[in-house]
Amino acid sequence: MPAILIIGATRGLGAALAAQYATHTNTTVYATTRSSSAPANAPNKIWIPNIDLLSPTASETLAAALPTPITTVILTAGIFPAETLSSLDFPAQIKTYTTSSIAPPFIASSLLKAGLLPQGAKFVLVTSEAGSISLRHEKEGGGNYAHHASKAAANMVGRLLALDLKEAGVVVGVVHPGFMRTEMTKNVGYDQYWESGGAVTPGEAAASLIDFIDNSLDMSKSGQFWAPRGPRDIGTAEAVMGTDLPTPLQLPW
Known about the structure:
By secondary structure, the protein is α/β, with parallel strands linked by helices. Helices cover about 35% and strands about 15% of the residues. An 8-stranded mixed sheet has the order 3-2-1-4-5-6-7-8, with helices on both faces. Helix 1 crosses helix 6 and helix 3 runs parallel beside helix 4.
């Protein structure tokens, strides 16, 4: 019976993934929250409270709370502080890097040591095309140092985890889920690009991601960077990669 773990499941993509997986037959969904109590109106999930990725003990607390090996782990937690070169935020950068790229290997290590990542399991990092160095282009300019650079670091973490977990038979996914209509993108002013950029709802992004994880992600794609929805919402894709790009699309680092 599949057991799914969604880390960061209270809002946006994480909430949508947990809700959709909870409708799958004979599937157990474990969902984490930073809060000490489970969210209201979120049925058919087993909530694991007090999982704050900024805490050094979060991974150990998580492993101790899980009663069974996990089929698929999806890390969706993220922070997006708006920044320009003249308005940098040191504490926000530390939180962003910790959440996106420091916590994930600790989680993988704790789950592996506890015997919770069996052969055939999938460990998926939700990063962003914003973390692709190759896709950064004059067309979109600079800024947003914490978010973009922490996602680039997360991509490296995914690549390294794929190398370390190969012998254990664990597949590591690194994915750009799509440009979404969320409070996170709205709070940094990206809502002005929702229409022109082809932004989708978290539910739409979750459906594409689940299909990719369940039906396409295997050891041949472990440690690679993929956009399950293709190039449609990546503003620099054609400028960098050319035209007539496929879906799903393997992205450059």
